[in-house]
């Protein structure tokens, strides 16, 4: 195999216009701004408008990522979309986004790893690029979780929001470990934990879409240890000291999980990119949304070493290391 690596050429994001604050949430279920903020760090979340679909969010984020990369859509030969809230059972949301972008070449498909989806999609595209099977890949995390929430269940509906983020990866010659791009990814799953976080509907099981169900405190218990373990394993495999990481861009599930993981690994608070207050948990969209926010506010700069992580339904979890 020739030496190729995936460079992160551009990142983009999109958030729906409508904002639902914690005060707005108080009008929907018996909760309080104080409870939500104290337990999760969330202050508000964005909610997709009626008729605004996951593919619309993903297309907008992809367009911005392409613009930031200075790359035309007609160069894209791979689209991998991470979503647990596709427009339809089929076709894949990736093919709908492909059509909306006007891309007529290459391949497009979805990956389904819920909140870890962006890492799974990025690892997939990275491997396609390293194998020489794609030259310009769009990796998109796009979700409309507002559509699968039980809006009468205060233990779950306060936690999630809608949004999308995207990255353009380009094939570059050189060794991945010397790369300005994706250095290493580490993916895990363990289906024994699937009852702790799942949707109680689906085409084959119930012929319905279903609603998200979660045993939050159980998920919390597993999250910190599994995520920190994956990050440490990845850093060891890459021969990188966690202390040398410039930025930690975690999946934005809950401020307490973010801080628990960073404390466990000795990552100082000022290196942690947190958007959970403004976005809530946007599942597969949360990592690229946070990455994008930190580029836009000037924190993440070209050449910085970035460590990403996530855990989601399945359980699936993992981490990724990249030099931006
Ligand atoms: N408002 C007010 N009270 C509430 C709410 C709410 N929205 N939700 C639950 N409560 C109440 C419960 O009914 C319970 O009351 P009780 O003591 O009278 O029975 C009390 O608050 C405590 O409930 P717990 O579930 O024990 O609360 P906990 O401290 O565990 O916090 C939370 C709940 C925030 C969900 C937490 O468990 C958590 O963050 N878990 C991680 C789950 C997560 O982030 N999942 C995202 C998807 S997976 C991922 O992305 C990693």
The gist of it:
The protein is an alpha/beta fold and 324 residues long. It has ten helices and 13 strands.
Describe how the helices and strands are arranged.
Elements: E1 4-14, E2 18-21, H1 22-26, H2 33-40, E3 44-47, H3 54-69, E4 78-82, H4 93-101, E5 107-111, H5 117-130, E6 136-144, H6 154-157, E7 162-173, E8 182-189, E9 197-199, E10 212-214, H7 216-238, E11 247-250, H8 255-265, H9 276-279, H10 286-296, E12 305-312, E13 316-323
Parallel strand pairs: 4-5, 4-6, 11-12
Antiparallel strand pairs: 1-7, 2-3, 6-7, 8-13, 9-10, 12-13
Helix pairs in contact: 3-4, 7-8
Residues 31, 35-36, 39-40, 115, 154-155, 158-159, 197, 214, 216-217, 219-220, 223, 251, 253-254, 281, 311-312 line the site of acetyl coenzyme *A.
Q: Can you characterise this structure?
A:
By secondary structure, the protein is α/β, with parallel strands linked by helices. It folds into two domains: 4-176, Peroxisomal Thiolase, Chain A, domain 1; 182-323, 3-Layer(aba) Sandwich (Peroxisomal Thiolase, Chain A, domain 1). It is 32% helix and 26% strand. The chain has ten helices and 13 strands. The chain has helices spanning 22-26, 33-40, 54-69, 93-101, 117-130, 154-157, 216-238, 255-265, 276-279, 286-296, and strands at residues 4-14, 18-21, 44-47, 78-82, 107-111, 136-144, 162-173, 182-189, 197-199, 212-214, 247-250, 305-312, 316-323. The strands form four sheets. A five-stranded mixed β-sheet has the order 1-7-6-4-5, sandwiched between helices. Strands 8-13-12-11 form a four-stranded mixed β-sheet, with helices on both faces. Strands 2-3 form a two-stranded antiparallel sheet. α3 packs across α4 and α7 (216-238) runs parallel beside α8. The longest helix has 23 residues, at 216-238. The protein is globular, with a radius of gyration of 18 Å. The protein starts with a strand and ends with a strand. 52% of the residues are buried. It binds acetyl coenzyme *A. Acetyl coenzyme *A (ACO) binds at residues 31, 35-36, 39-40, 115, 154-155, 158-159, 197, 214, 216-217, 219-220, 223, 251, 253-254, 281, 311-312.
